[in-house]
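For reference, the entry.
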Amino acid sequence: MSLLRVYFLQAIWSSIQQLFSRSIRFPMNLRYVVVLFFPILFTSIGFAAADSLVYSFNFSDTTKYDKSLSYDIDLKSQPGNIILAPGKAKNLASGSIMKAIYAGPFPLNAEQKPDTNKINAEKLHDNNFFTYVEFPVTASNIGSQVKIDLRVVRVVDSIVVIGLGNLASTGYQLRPIAFSYYAGVDTNNMSRIFQEFNNLDSARHVATIPDAQPIRYITFEIDKQHPNNSTVISEFRIFGQGYVVEAAYVSNIDSVGMLPANFANVFLDADIPTGTTVSFEMRTGSKKTYDSTSWSNWSSPIQFLSSPSASEGAQLLTAEPRRFFQYRVSLRTSTLETPKVRSVKFVYQQNLIADSTSARITPDTVDVLTISTLTYSIFAKFSGSSLGIDGVKIQTPSPSSVRNVTVNGVSVAYSHVPSSSEIVIEFAQTVSSTSTIDITFATKLIRHADFPSIISNKSSTWNPQTVDPNRSPGSGGWSVIAAGVPRNPLVDVVIDPNPFTPNNDGRNDITVIDFSVTKIEVPKPLRIKIFDLTGRKIRTIADLMSGVNPYFGDPRKGGSAFLWDGKDDNGKVVRPGVYILQVSLDVDDGGFVVTKSVVVAY
């Protein structure tokens, strides 16, 4: 039985209990229904939380949504479903990616340099007929192209190319005189779908595609230019079967009643074909009317790739506790199909872990790639009904080592689970009175970072509660700035222990290779290799694509560094001696290499 069904049945059972407690008399026929239904409930709600509540909304109601924030949805074609708007009704070029390819020279500006304003093909779907792309008149520009990626598969019925019209000085001369359209579902299998030999339309040419087939990529190619004038294109408009690329349904602002809530899991009743996705976001506030000061940002999108994953649900992490909420359901496709969403449900509790929390981290500026000690302070307020805090989880961008934990300045007993991406603290005793919890830890940052956190209670482990950043004057909340810029992308390569003794005696059997990758925009090949003194490679430790990343800290203790166990690629322990460790990163200027010696001893 799904988690949602358990919560939902619990909510029904609680409501029925309330009805009986008020001595409401049921008609005789309804009593039989209730009595028959009770055994089913008793068999399935034994492990549900007693205070679970369920919010549910189905999309057969087509009036209760924010029309100013929603876009490209269709609520009428398939009643009861949100689907993507049909592509026939929309210019598909507006959501595409376009690029101009010149076979000959570029248009030049007054300084005789390429005029970037006239070669930007993204202007060809901006719905502005006064922006354009120009192909200068020369025989060598025949064969120039505009490449179009629709971003999704379509059955394209017609393509409209628009020029600047009939200019008095040049007549029809700026028009593309002869051209072809090529198309395909991938760029390796393109075929001609239309050819125009003599375009007489001064401003607007409509190509009706015979025998239309599913395509994603379109290439417009110039076959003939006027001998005395440039070819100028102002806009493309593309129409066809299928659906728009993406759409969003945004609910009206709603509330969970008079008390704030701790939101738990979200569930969707949806059909999600292969090649489509549905995502869910929520923002919450303390006031009924949205404003940026009393409302949170949208939560990170929860993406569902299949119908079963949507019905199984996912944990919803949004600012809480809050009374008011608004949600956004986003639909996307890369095929000729659309996802369908029938309803949304989420579970929440009004028995809170803490009535309110906020967090601040100090200091808010540290030196880049330097081990720094930070203190994460959580300010928590409680009431008599609060569950209390049994645990704290802090997301960290780098491996961290906890040094101390205090409550109101007094050290307390705790347990800590090592991890490369978070700090997990469990308290020996529940914190249930208004307190300041300080968690001191050491870490090394390679860029600016946020440290969001959640709190938990043992009786409600399935529903942690998020913590707000403290944005009081003079405080940066939970953000930390890493000051300084390293000169090289490979920083602080350290081997420890060195020498090491891989003899299986349990002491110094493995060495840790610790460093950081910085200053790269996209992932690059990273390799770590071991050589003997003759230059022969004996072991490849790593061969992967790496972005900016702090590879430091023993991974056996929650770090993310690399290990060498003293063995070669065949699994044999190497002989005692000096070996060469090489860490290399392929970057745009040819690469960067750090070489160090490592000693194996027995």
About this structure: DSSP finds three helices and 42 strands in the chain. The mean pLDDT is 86. The longest strand covers residues 145-162.
